[in-house]
Design goal:
Layout lengths: L2 H14 L19 H5 L4 H9 L2 H6 L13 E7 L6 H10 L11 E8 L2 E8 L18 E7 L6 H12 L8 E7 L9 H7 L10 E5 L8 H11 L31 H9 L1
Parallel strand pairs: 1-3, 1-4, 4-5, 5-6
Antiparallel strand pairs: 2-3
């Protein structure tokens, strides 16, 4: 059997077995390319590169050799929401880098991968300005966790936060999502306590969604680890959605560029691992 026929045969087997490649449009000549293994098995670059160096025929004669490629980890989708100036982006980058970053109001979204105890969270930080809140629902699909960030000194707009919270919880796409509320800016004089915020938001009335409220300070990182610990404890209880890997993760309309991260910082990781 010629090399081209081997390629075609393997291509057919991929489709018959319900490969993830099945839904993609794959031109026949792509399968004659020496770099095919890099394209098909881009998650295992070292192994793919080795087979590519032997040519495309070798990879099709010995496909079991690629079984060493580990499966993609399940990514648990998280949306970070709240009113503008609540501290959402600051919290996201505390998770990622364990340090404060200077931010500007988010127009669109930022997205990062945070890894805690080998659990992968894909976190979407969504802009909270009034003009952007109507678009929050475009991010809801497959969401497992909602992180609601509350500005603990913004008493005047807490009623708006409450309205947005219950609007989200009523959405069909969030019916299985767990809710983590961060009572942020606890370092500020005159701030509301987590208990006060819980009472005002009537969190005790939420029966269909697991929820937890956590005091925190985004600037120092205090309380953030405890919130993530609660989220990791919910894994396996909340139904997981497997989200495909993306080549480009950022849908941000901001000028700053978001990248994949490994998070958390060392001090935070040690805390989590010691619990």
């Amino acid at each position: 059997m010629g090399a081209f026929h081997k390629v075609q045969s393997f291509r057919n087997r991929l489709f018959q077995r319900g490969s993830p490649m099945r839904s993609q449009v794959l031109p026949a000549n792509l399968f004659q390319n020496r770099l095919l293994s890099l394209w098909v098995h881009r998650s295992c670059k070292e192994t793919a590169s080795t087979w590519a160096s032997h040519g495309v025929t070798a990879i099709f004669e010995h496909p079991p050799a690629l079984a060493c490629c580990p499966p993609h980890p399940v990514e648990h989708k998280v949306i970070i929401v709240g009113l503008d100036n609540a501290g959402k982006t600051t919290i996201l980058y505390q998770f990622l880098m364990n340090e404060v970053v200077h931010t500007s109001p988010t127009i669109g979204s930022n997205v990062e991968e945070i890894v805690v105890k080998n659990t992968h969270f894909l976190m979407w930080d969504i802009g909270g300005q009034e003009s952007l809140r109507s678009s929050w629902n475009t991010y809801y699909s497959n969401t497992e966790f909602i992180i609601l960030v509350v500005d603990s000194i913004d008493r005047e707009r807490l009623s708006i936060t409450k309205e947005e919270l219950y609007r989200m919880l009523a959405h069909e796409d969030l019916r299985k999502a767990a809710v983590l509320i961060f009572a942020n800016k606890q370092d500020m004089k005159g701030c509301m306590t987590a208990a006060e915020i819980s009472t005002y938001l009537t969190l005790s009335s939420i029966k269909d969604h697991p929820w937890h409220i956590q005091s925190c300070c985004a600037l120092t990182g205090e309380g953030l680890c405890q919130g993530l610990e609660w989220m990791t404890s919910r894994i396996g209880v909340v139904k997981s959605f497997s989200i495909p890997k993306r080549v480009i993760l950022s849908s941000s309309l901001n000028t700053r560029h978001t990248v994949r991260g490994r998070g958390l910082g060392h001090s935070c990781s040690k805390y989590l691992l010691s619990k």
